[in-house]
Amino acid sequence: MPSKTVAFFMLEIVVLGVFAIGLIGSVAFWLQGSAGGRRLPFWDKAWHVLGRVKLIFHGATLREFLLDWLLQRRLLAAGRLRWLMHICFFWSFIILFFVGSVGLMLAERGLLPITKDDPWFAFVNDFAGAMALFAVAIALYRRFILKENVVKTFAEDIVLVVLLAVIVLSGYALESARLIAHQAPGHVARYSFVGYPLSLALRGASLDWWGAESAIWWVHVVGGMSFVAYLPYSKMFHLIATPFALAANTVEARKREYVTQQRHKDTERPRNVVLDG
């Protein structure tokens, strides 16, 4: 097994371990509260919550969940600029992870019929990167230009923004180095609307582009792995998980409302009165 593959595999194990610890810690913290207004043992509470989550995928609750999760609807009340920043962060992460990372990994193993130069794949990845950089720009604008009272510059926010910027910028640089090293023709590379113009600007530089591609690849991988490891400890994780909690709470509230209505109907139901003749 090549040393590059071994190093990547070891890094992957460490990252998944850190991610798992953070995920377990977050779930354990959420399960400290009551479930349906009752104090339950840990595992009973976990099964109760899973049952509520399963009911999300039905009817009106599913519609509300999709609006809250896919469109981050509830953030609109906090301001359009904040909503725009979060929706760009959210969707850029979803696209870059599931299309750019997982999709490419499956393609390299022959499980998906796509390549890096497929027009839709190149365009979608560049677009998601641009969307992420736009979100970073909004975050910096809100913190250092507007200096909004509701915004505080916590270290975790800075780490998240820096990691996302490193992933995107190194991704563009990696794509440019790849296009130069492999001498991709313009009619193939043009769909990478950021990476291709950058490769044209850098093509004249006297560099070992094969070596540069390998070095930039490691920067990109370490940045991406660091982001995944940090995710359960960051606000980005709440951005993904909160809609599930809100939808589960909605299911619980509707269930309590239904039970209350049924009890109310039972108390109002006329009863037969038997008179002694």
Q: How far is the N terminus from the C terminus?
A: 98 Å
Report the order of strands and helices. HHHHHHHHHH
Radius of gyration: 25 Å
Structural class per helix/strand content?
Answer: mainly alpha
pLDDT average, as an integer? 80
User: How many structurally independent domains?
Assistant: 1
Q: Give the amount of beta strand, in percent.
A: under 5%
- Unreliable runs, pLDDT <50, ≥5 residues? 273-277
Question: What labels would you give this structure?
Answer:
disordered C terminus; Fumarate Reductase Cytochrome B subunit; globular; 277 residues; mainly alpha
Structural description of this entry:
The structure is a single chain. 74% of the residues lie in helices and 0% in strands. The chain is mainly α and 277 residues long. α3 (59-70) packs antiparallel against α10 (235-268), α5 packs antiparallel against α6 (155-181) and α6 packs across α8 (195-202). The model is unreliable at 273-277 (pLDDT under 50).
Show the helix and strand layout.
Elements: H1 3-30, H2 42-54, H3 59-70, H4 80-108, H5 119-146, H6 155-181, H7 186-189, H8 195-202, H9 209-230, H10 235-268
